[in-house]
Amino acid sequence: MGKSKRIVKKRGGGWPAVRYSLKLGRKAGPFNLLKAIRKSNVCKTCAFGMKGAKNELGEGLQICKKGMQAITQDLMPGIPIEFWKSHSIDHLKTYSGRELEGLGRLIHPLYRNSEDSHFNTISWDEAFDKIFDQFRKVPSDRTFFYTSGRSSNEAAFLVQLYARQFGTNNVNNCSFYCHQATGVALGETFGSATATLTLEDVEKSDLVVLIGANPSSNHPRFMTHLMNLRKRKGHVLVINPFKELGLEKFSIPSKIKSLFFGSEISSDYFQVHCGGDMSFLKAVTARIWNDGNGNEEFLRRYCNNFEEWKEDIEATDIEKLIEQAGLSKDELEIFCNYLVTAENIIFTWAMGLTHQVHGVRTIRILSNLSLMLGMVGKPGSGLLIFQYL
Question: Are strands 40-42 and 263-264 parallel, antiparallel or unpaired?
Answer without folding.
Answer: unpaired
